[in-house]
Amino acid sequence: MRPLVSLVTWLKGLPRITVVTVSLFLFFGIFGPWIAPMDPSAQDLSLMGQGPSATHWLGTDHLGRDTLSRLMVAANTSLTSVGMVLAIAMTIGITMGTIAGYCRGWVEDLLMRLVDVGLSIPSLIISLAVIGIVGPGYWSMVFALALAWWPMSARISRAVAVSIMNKPHIEALRVLGASPLRIYFNHLLPGTIGSVMVYATADAGMAAIAVATLSFLGLGIQPPTPEWGQMLVDALPYLESDPRQVILPGLALTAAVIGFNTLGETIALNRVPKRLSRRQLLTRRMEVAGWHKETSDAA
Amino acid sequence: MKRRMFLQRSTAVIGASALGGLYPGILSAQAHENTLRIAISKAAGDLDLLKHYAIWAVQDLMFEPLVKYGKGGEIEPCLATDWSLEDGGTTLKLTLREGVTFQDGTPFDAAACKWNLERWMGTEKFEWMSCSKNFESVEMVDDYHVNIHFKAPVISLLQELSYTRPSRFVSPNAVDEEGNQVEPIGTGPWRQVSASEAENVFERYDGYWGEKPSYERLEAKVIPESRSRVAALRSGELDVIGGFWIAPLSPIEAKQLEDAGFTISVDPGNVTLVMGFNPDRSEALRDNRVRRAISLGVDREAVGKAFYHGYARPAGSLFSDVLPLSGQQFEAPARDVAAASALLEEAGWTGGPIRSKEGKPLSIEMVISPDAVPGLRIMSEVMQAQLKEIGIDIVIHSVDHATKHTEMLERKYDIGFFLTYGAPFDPFGTIVGLFLSTFKNDVEGKLYTDAEHLDPLINAAIDAKPEDTEAELQKFYDWLHDNDAIAPLLFVPGIWAHSDRVAGFTGPATEYDMPYENITLKA
């Protein structure tokens, strides 16, 4: 009961729009394939591009497939893909970042230069290059995006790991003769994962867009699996005659991205003991913007 | 300031601004009064007739052939007014049109004709053309009579002479000492005024020997994206868009333009979309019962409806009847789920929902490239759903245009899609290029080859006397049909749209010609 209460309290602290959109995304992402009213791939060419009706609540697409079912199952596709991409990217990033933060010295230099190289190339270019070599498909898309995504989490992990390693309790552990593995697995890794997960939450929206972009370009999810980006590109020729076909997947994607972005931002800004008021949040945002400016000026 | 004065002055200012805004529009309309503006999907490129880069339709504006490929494959006089084949088909006697000059004033005569033909005939680069491969010599009889001698009779000789390149004629003064074409100067009705990556501008050549266009200028504007072309037509920036190669217009865009009051012109099309099987990669496809089941399992009407919205005809034959020597037209197979399922059962593929044989599921990879064949993704999704109903699992593998060519050449597909070459190349262009195993095709790969059974039939058709060609070709068509070697799907239409400024528009005879003829422009 207590965890549930604390979850509800935590949720109450989040903006309502975030709670609604992320919850809907997660709900349809998990249960979409089971609760979809129709087979999302079942075609009925006599019903091509029909508007909403009692049978098809959100109408049908250009091949007479039920739009509502496709949107629901596409949430599952996006959630799975985004989850996989982030899981792989975070695993690589956290491993490299924590090793760099723990070892320091030439190991850190080497790993961080690798990260710099990764960060200097736009993620879409890396993804396109990887897909160009491996060929389009679900797993190549996940692999390509993960390769493009890991450097940022590596950099954050390294920063967090360095700060943890400088804390007095780590010093004490060393003095007491704790083994490097114990320090790494029991103290450094759990602390780093917690911080990087916040970044992952904010990044889920961008990853969803990347999945949709690759599918939009025909390089990601292959038919007949429904995916929002693919639904968008399929509907584009009908923008004028039936804008509904474009608007619906576009709205779903936008809502998911905004939801995750605001969730990530809220968690990041609320990582202080007391929840901030709106005014405090605004001040904090301006402060953060100032940091960014200072960093750019320094660079 | 009094209220009335304020209102008067405000009205005057607004009125002046509105007129000012309209002025460029009025100027623009006047500037385009005598100009046909037509879209091309990419820059026209190097217009050298001996290179392979330019848009054919742009070259068609300036350069003319000896004979022209007309509608239905009719060979019509152009720079040659008469011709005859003698010495068992090894000598072509040509009578050249008198009074023709190139756009730089150079006369087109036997010397210019000989010089042009000897630039490319008999060279290794153009060995892919029968007339070049079998070329022996050109003999000038007098100023307007030329004989071309060949080592052996040339199949589709007149068709080859109608090609846009290299067969057409350039002024000898437009070529430098190294043989490079420096200016695009032909005998055609249009003379190029300027060329850039954005547009090619032409003006009417008033010394043209034939019927001159009724308007003075033609602008070929480069707009790569289909929706932008549609928008440009709607806004009045363009007069004509469309064609399979020139500036493709998708069927749904055509429908939308039709609803918006634009005129749509649909040609029956002389290109066929064919489903090709690769028995070397897929064991299941070695059995012609499986190939037949796939052909029967596909509803061609529905496939055509999904993308072409009724503009495309279902195909049962390799070539449409608008092409010469296209043979007996086989009826497009109607979808028959029961018959397809029975064939698969007979072939040993049983069970469901996906059939299997000896524990192996009937899974077939379908390689598609929507960049290369517009609408293929939609059509493949329809086929995927239809074939699933008969227990075949189709795995769609979507690739870009460049990868498609590589995968087709390396035969990395179970089912692939091919387009026939269309007029003026067919039937022999496609037959030799896509079916003859001894002919190396480095671009599209092979649709189907069988050195033992198919090659002798093709060679017999190539070597046949003109009067026997049709019968020999029919044997080839029958073999393909009887063995379900391929599954023709649709005859791809040529779709055009034009504004109400354009009157008398007719689709070109081939997808490589520019449709400028017969057009009159309204003021």
From TrEMBL, chain A:
* Keyword Transport carried by entry: yes
Q: Report keywords, A-Z.
A: Cell membrane, Membrane, Peptide transport, Protein transport, Transmembrane, Transmembrane helix, Transport
Q: Name one Pfam family in it.
A: BPD_transp_1
Please provide the Gene Ontology terms (biological process) for this protein: peptide transport; protein transport; transmembrane transport
Q: Its topology with respect to the membrane?
A: Multi-pass membrane protein
Q: Does the keyword Cell membrane apply?
A: yes
Q: Show the GO cellular component annotation of the record.
A: plasma membrane
Say where the protein is mainly found: membrane
- Residue intervals passing through the bilayer: 17-36, 79-101, 121-150, 196-221, 246-269
**Xref: SUPFAM superfamilies:** MetI-like
**Protein location:** Cell membrane
Please list the residue ranges annotated as the ABC transmembrane type-1 domain.
Answer: 75-264
The UniProt entry, under InterPro entries, shows: BP-dependent_transpt_permease, MetI-like, MetI-like_sf
Family, according to the entry, reads as follows: Belongs to the binding-protein-dependent transport system permease family.
**Protein name per the record:** ABC transporter permease
TrEMBL record, chain B:
List locations, semicolon-separated.
Answer: Periplasm
InterPro entries for the chain: Peptide/Ni-bd, SBP_5, SBP_5_dom, TAT_signal
Report the SUPFAM superfamilies cross-referenced here. Answer: Periplasmic binding protein-like II
Q: Which Gene3D superfamilies match?
A: Dipeptide-binding Protein, Domain 3 (3.10.105.10), Periplasmic binding protein-like II (3.40.190.10)
In Pfam terms, one family for this protein is: SBP_bac_5
Q: Can you supply a Gene Ontology BP term from the record?
A: peptide transport
Q: Which GO terms describe its cellular component?
A: ATP-binding cassette (ABC) transporter complex; outer membrane-bounded periplasmic space
Molecular function (GO) terms for this protein are: peptide transmembrane transporter activity
Q: Which residues form the Solute-binding protein family domain?
A: 74-438
Alphabetical keyword list: Signal, Transport
Major site of localization recorded for this protein? periplasm
Task: Spell out the family assignment given in the record's similarity comment.
Answer: Belongs to the bacterial solute-binding protein 5 family.
**What is this protein's name?**
ABC transporter substrate-binding protein
Q: Which organism is it from?
A: Paracoccus methylarcula
Q: Which lineage ranks, top first, belong to the organism behind this chain?
A: Bacteria, Pseudomonadati, Pseudomonadota, Alphaproteobacteria, Rhodobacterales
